[in-house]
C-alpha cells in the first residue's frame, strides 16, 4: 500500500512547521515580503498549512476555483509565484524531504499557477 507524502512526513503538525518556516523565508524575501505587511500571519499559516497538506495528499481539499477566488484580487505575478515556489522548495529541502518528494510537491504547486497568477486568471 502506497502512503502519501503527507503521511510519510508526519501529517499536519509537520506540515504546519514547514509552512511556518516557509513564511519566515517569504517575509525576508525582497520579491514577495511586501505582500505580507498587513496580513494576519497566524490565519494565513493555518490556511496555507491546509493547502500544502492538500498538495501532499492529505485530507484537506482546495479546488482551482477556490484558489482563483482567494487570489484574484492580489494581482500576483509570475515572478512572485516563481519566488514562492523556490522558497517552498528550499524549505522542504531544509526539512529533509527526499528529492522525489520535493519535486512532487513543487510540481503540484506549479500546476496551480494558472489559478493564482493574475494574468492567467479570467477577467
Please describe the structure with a list of short key phrases separated by commas or semicolons.
single chain, 123 residues, Globin-like, 6 helices, globular
CATH class: Mainly Alpha
Average pLDDT metric: 90
- Percent of residues in beta strands: under 5%
Estimate percent helicity. Answer: 55-70%
CATH architecture: Orthogonal Bundle
Query: Could you state the CATH homologous superfamily?
Result: Globins
Rg on CA atoms, Å:
14 Å
Give the CATH topology. Globin-like
Count of extended strands: 0
Structural class: mainly alpha
Task: List the total number of helices.
Answer: 6
Specify the biggest β-sheet: none
- The end-to-end distance, rounded to whole angstroms, is 43 Å
Q: How many discrete structural domains?
A: 1
Helices and strands, in N-to-C order? HHHHHH
Describe the global form. globular
Structural notes for this entry:
By secondary structure, the chain is mostly helical. The protein has a single domain (5-120), classed as Globin-like, CATH 1.10.490. 59% of the residues lie in helices and 0% in strands. The protein has helices spanning 5-8, 12-28, 41-55, 64-71, 78-94, 99-110. It is globular, with a radius of gyration of 14 Å. The N and C termini lie far apart (43 Å). 22% of the residues are buried. The mean pLDDT is 90.
How would you summarize the topology of this molecule?
Layout (H helix, E strand, L loop, with lengths): L4 H4 L3 H17 L12 H15 L8 H8 L6 H17 L4 H12 L13
Helix pairs in contact: 2-3, 2-5, 5-6
